[in-house]
């Protein structure tokens, strides 16, 4: 985006020489090669610092730069980090195989987010002290941080989080439900008793009289039956019409938008 760039072959001497000349004029060095590859090419932290003593050096190898760690020599890329750290195991519906995250490489984004803040902090430190900065980001570790509450719960209680599809671990109903039309859906979250009462009154299905749904705990315990009942009701409506009806009663609801929906969306167009 309006930046000059150049591709260099770092397996050839002229490419390495050109990279060294560029480093001498740079504020920041960022690389996501394997740590041992950087060292083999002569672009490890100490080598780069020798060229530019106040460099902000940020590396994002899959598993960090400590050669004593078990995964140090391993290659990695975003799509294989997701199953490796446990994200894929949480995706999909209970009783079925993991769905995975196929369309977006979550680890790439979170490692890059950590790197962005590291660069900014590193530049601030350099400006205040004149010193170089070495930031070593493990993509593996940065992505595991996303699952912190689940990992901690498992460590403390032995309970591991399972796949729950679009449901919540705190309340029900919450999910994505079918509407009229081909692959048309609505997302509904019903967090508390007030929202549940509003949903029950709008649906007029007699849910409030069913002991299985009489309390928040009962709704969680009977979530399969509840989701089936809600889906049976939503399937009789167009998703946009139902979203407006639910929103008017204070419920969190919206269509599950397709790309075509977004192109025509008034908020998107006006914004």
Describe this protein's structure.
The longest helix has 24 residues, at 106-129. The protein is built from 13 helices and six strands. Helix content is 45%, strand content 10%. The model has no long low-confidence stretch (mean pLDDT 92). With 271 residues, the protein is mostly helical. A hairpin with a 6-residue loop joins strand 4 (174-178) and strand 5 (185-189).
Radius of gyration: 26 Å
Structural class computed from helices and strand pairing: mainly alpha
| Main beta-sheet annotation | 3 strands, parallel
Number of helices: 13
Give, in order, the helices and strands: HEHHEHHEHHEEHHHHEHH
Fraction of residues in H or I helices = 40-55%
- In round numbers, the mean pLDDT is 92
Stretches where pLDDT falls below 50 for ≥5 residues? none
Q: Numbering strands along the chain, what is their spatial order in the largest sheet?
A: 1-2-3
Could you give the topology of this structure?
Layout: H1 13-23, E1 28-31, H2 35-41, H3 45-51, E2 56-59, H4 78-85, H5 106-129, E3 133-136, H6 139-144, H7 148-157, E4 174-178, E5 185-189, H8 193-203, H9 216-221, H10 223-234, H11 239-248, E6 252-255, H12 259-264, H13 266-270
Parallel strand pairs: 1-2, 2-3
Antiparallel strand pairs: 4-5, 5-6
Keywords:
mainly alpha; 10% strand; 271 residues; three-stranded antiparallel β-sheet; three-stranded parallel β-sheet
